[in-house]
């Protein structure tokens, strides 16, 4: 008997039409984007670094025995620095490149061209 009464007390799901919508903030996009999360935690040459550390560990951290791995890591890192400087140079010029990898400054330029409202909030 008690089990039946406990099962009857189950809460029913709420009906969506019974809950009124309350607008807390205006339903439009802002005209700017903050640059807080633009800092990427991109790790350069992770695969080469792990191979290098495993080689150093097996050879008791003797770099002369891991010359090939050190060279591969340095070559990869030079390539990474070249790509990073090229990306920084194009973003510094303000060139808008079509794609999904816009930084916050480029995105703010696009949003200034097409504002959503005349208010600043």
Q: What's the quick description here?
A:
The protein has helices spanning 2-8, 46-58, 67-93, 104-113. The chain is mainly α and 121 residues long.
Model description:
It comes from Anopheles marajoara. Keywords: Disulfide bond. This is CHCH domain-containing protein. The protein is an all-alpha fold and 121 residues long. The chain has a domain at 43-92 and 100-114. The chain is built from four helices and no strands. α2 (46-58) runs antiparallel to α3 (67-93). The radius of gyration is 28 Å and the shape is flat.
Distance between the termini: 59 Å
Q: Which structural class best describes the helix and strand composition?
A: mainly alpha
Helical content band: 40-55%
Radius of gyration: 28 Å
Flag low-confidence runs. none
Gross geometry: flat
Mean pLDDT: 83
Beta-strand fraction estimate:
under 5%
**Mind describing the biggest β-sheet?**
none
Order of helices and strands: HHHH
Count of separate DSSP helical elements: 4
Number of beta-strand segments: 0
Topology:
Blueprint: H1 2-8, H2 46-58, H3 67-93, H4 104-113
Task: State the main characteristics.
CHCH; 0% strand; flat; 4 helices; Ribosomal_mS37_met; CHCH domain-containing protein; RNA binding; mainly alpha
């Amino acid at each position: 008997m008690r089990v039946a009464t406990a099962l009857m007390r189950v809460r029913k799901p709420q009906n969506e039409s019974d809950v009124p919508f309350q607008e807390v903030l205006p339903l439009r996009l802002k005209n700017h984007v903050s640059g807080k999360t633009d800092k990427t935690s991109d790790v350069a040459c992770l695969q080469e670094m792990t191979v290098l550390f495993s080689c150093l560990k097996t050879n008791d951290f003797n770099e002369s025995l891991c010359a090939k791995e050190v060279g591969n890591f340095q070559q990869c890192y030079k390539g990474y620095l070249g790509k990073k400087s090229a990306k920084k140079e194009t973003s510094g010029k303000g060139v808008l490149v079509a794609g999904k990898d816009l930084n916050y400054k480029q995105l703010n330029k696009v949003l200034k061209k097409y504002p959503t409202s005349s208010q600043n909030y």
